[in-house]
Fold this sequence. Notes:
With 447 residues, this protein is an alpha/beta fold. The protein contains 15 helices and 17 strands. A 5-stranded antiparallel beta sheet has the order 2-1-4-3-5. A 4-stranded parallel beta sheet has the order 15-16-14-17, sandwiched between helices. A 3-stranded antiparallel beta sheet has the order 7-6-8. The protein is globular and about 90 Å long.
Amino acid sequence: MFAEVAVPIYIRQTFTYRLPGDMASRAQPGCRVLVPFGKKFLTAFIVDLHESLQSEVDESDIKDIEELLDESPIITPEILELTRWVSDYYFAPWGECLRAALPAGATSISEQVLSLTDAGRKALTEGRLAPSKLEALQALAGADFVEARQLERSLARPRVGALVRQLTRDGLITVSQRIGETRMKPKLQNVVRLKSQWPAASGQWSVDSGQARDSQHPKKKARGATRGEPQLNEKQRRVIETLASSSEGIPFSDLLEAADVSSSVVRTLEKRGVVEVFARQVRRDPLAHIAPDDAALVTLTGEQQLALDQIEARLAERQYSTFLLHGVTSSGKTEIYIRAMREAIKQGLTALMLVPEISLTPVFSRRLRAQFGESVAILHSSLSEGERTDEWRRIKHGDARVVIGTRSAVFAPLESLGIVIVDEEHDGSYKQDETPRYHGRDTAIVR
Length: 447
């Protein structure tokens, strides 16, 4: 089985790689793979699969894919087709278009790392080297490997590259490639909760005024304690009383502050089987600081209702149509936007709203949060890497059914998209002026 892949660099063509072993049965278009490309490894995207070579190429020249990074596609068929159109229409590399459709950190490249050989360690001990070579070996001696860029910074001398090549030829160091880790990961937080077999009422524990005894040794019970009662000191009791109020658990740092204890107290309770500490995914919400706009929907005018009726009619028919909604400032276009999106959601569809400037997203976000609650997600370049990853993940999993963002949000992985609103569609900000170049309004129409 062979895979056609697009690499996220400025090359328009795709490349063919072999899928070895069971990778052939697991790979699908839209999955990321790690491929050897020149002297590096790159994250690439499978865009097609075929059982035979599509061109007159010797099969022995085909390289194997190094690793399948996704067990299921992270790029939907719709986005795959949309980015292919962007690539063809705007003459942009397909891999660059696919990277633009994903959060930052979805792709990674290999980095050059250096390490000492046995001969290098021996030469360092003997010290019979030129000062520049000796300085370089000393910089590598403290770790198993050092990034080439880090060595350049630490030496602060010209022609470090030539020095590295000389040390490699002398057999004193080795140069290899290490794959950079993907940054497209959820944020995890340590959470503490009571074990289910322990009583929830704080009055059922015995308090030991001295050092806590191990409950597994009944002979070491505190004076006055009833046989079988857990032996706890005052700090441990405060932890348990705090946890008793929450069945889902409390973040580790919040628990320490609320109970006024150190982490060792919680870890002791964990070892005794009283509490459990586990990692829980934490959502980085870019709209957490924005208070919802509680303004009620107003009654539409006749002209507004006429426009809305035409939009809703096409939604009901599941029929594609483009509308140009014209109105001066404060004429109520937003009221029509919101009602049209509500109708799409009512019909089991999703909604996307594009705005030309990042500064406009808080204004509309307040209105959308008031109407659609937590099902609203936001996408734009000013979000932190973690926030953008979390919002993208919510959209991909179907937790967010309304998306607002700037031009790149046109690639949001919404399923069953029912309506796209492009506010201020004439604005020049919808034109991407760097690779991959595309027009957000026209891409929205194609989608």
